[in-house]
Amino acid sequence: MLYQITGKQIDIGEALQTHVKDGFDSVINKYAERPTDANIIFSKSAHEFVCEATVHLSTGLTAQAKAHANEIYAAFDSCSDKMEKQLRRYKRRLKDHHRERSEPVELSGASSYILARGEESEEQEPDSLQPIIVAEMETKIPSLSVGEAVMQMELAGAPVLVFRKEGQDGLNVVYRREDGNIGWIDPQM
């Protein structure tokens, strides 16, 4: 498995890199078959260290975890525990997913935009209805079944996931509702 271990404004030493590789190897190989790569980023937020990990599986699914701690090793250990919990929770479905799917998840390109938040008060009307674009990025939209989309949303810890339903052309959305259930938007063509 390919590891990319980096630090934002932090020097990452060999001992930490070895600790990360050993820790993730044991967790990922136990629960996921054929992981392709892992991206681990360490940063500092005030007095705490932050560890963010993203693991890409060969099927196209992605698992993400993030943790904070006062020490950098503790931040990684907490992040690793969260990743293990996610993968353990979905182990059966991940293994079944490998058997059912002979090819990796198909991804199609799309643009993703970050819009500036309006600073107007409730009484004041905005000057224009055109939003200010702060950033533009490339993103990928996977072709998944609804069950796989829900699993991917849960693994990524995301509140919403846009996907292309296998066998259909239109876009679908799954999202976490306020009542804790999952919502699914399936537009009719």
Automatic annotation (TrEMBL):
GO terms for molecular function: ribosomal small subunit binding. Keywords: Cytoplasm, Translation regulation. Pfam families: Ribosom_S30AE_C, Ribosomal_S30AE. GO terms for cellular component: cytosolic small ribosomal subunit. Belongs to the HPF/YfiA ribosome-associated protein family. Long HPF subfamily. Interacts with 100S ribosomes. Associates exclusively with 100S ribosomes, which are dimers of 70S ribosomes. This is Ribosome hibernation promoting factor. It comes from Salinihabitans flavidus.
